Amino acid sequence: MDLPKRDTILHVIDTLASNYLKGKIRAVRMAMVALLSGGHLLLEDIPGLGKTTLALALAQALGLSFGRVQCTSDLLPSDITGLSIYNREENRFSFLRGPIFNNVVLVDEINRTMPKTQSALLEAMEERRVTVEGTTYPLPEPFLVIATQNPVEQVGTYPLPESQLDRFMVRSGIGYPPEAIEKAIIKGGSIRDEIKTLNPLVAVGDILTAQQAIKEKIYLSEKLVDYIYAIVAATRQHKAIASGISTRGAISMAETAKAHAYLEGRSYVIPEDVKAIAASVGGHRLILSLESESYDKGELLNAILHTIPVPLV
């Protein structure tokens, strides 16, 4: 089956991973999976590994409008959504749109701002709209929030509440690049200026076409639905987990598995697609029991995967 715009999307991934984000192919790929699935991405890692650079490069390569929110402890919800300003000349209030009204919105160090401000993103991420002073404004399509988060044990951070975490379809780290690549990065210095000169590699219509193709042309069989359900059900019964993956999380696993199959060139989902995305999509949705809080959620979910029989397709 023909998969519209797949080669174009793969070209974006390859270009970014080869020239601008070397050694970060998985993070680039998961960012694209989030975009194609209509979800949002949470990048969690220590500072200085390229989280912000990934967001900038992705927006530039896709030719999408870009907005940035630098989170601080005194950031207000209106700094994200916008606010009404009185225009004396026209004798009326005019709405000044905030950075949320862009295709790609980078929310940098999201856990450095208060939960009240974090919650300003909930409606935008879930409903693709913003309500300010009783008026609802639609957001552009495609729409992708990329939030970066520092480890919660660092000074001045506020852990994201579960309701906010659940809005992120994918969570991914960046990780250190291989030794040879990191040495080349050290020698070459920052690539921010190079990214600014990167010409768009796709049109907005190409992204929307790819998203539609994934919804309509990638087949998810009943066996794979049963497999996904078995995974989420196992998380709800595990002794180390206080609260397992929700139905929304299961839907996210199905949608991202379809996007992964699309990138792999298949018109149907196989168990390997589910395995490839499971930890990134389901790990951050787990709420661990008190005695198990030190466990790595992604590793725990991968361990659960090994206990689930893999269906034959």
UniProtKB/TrEMBL annotation:
SUPFAM superfamilies from the UniProt entry: P-loop containing nucleoside triphosphate hydrolases
Which InterPro entries does the entry link to?
Answer: AAA+_ATPase (IPR003593), ATPase_AAA-3 (IPR011703), CbbQ/NirQ/NorQ/GpvN (IPR050764), ChlI/MoxR_AAA_lid (IPR041628), P-loop_NTPase (IPR027417)
AAA+ ATPase domain residues are: 37-178
Its recorded name reads: ATPase AAA
State the species of origin. Geotalea uraniireducens
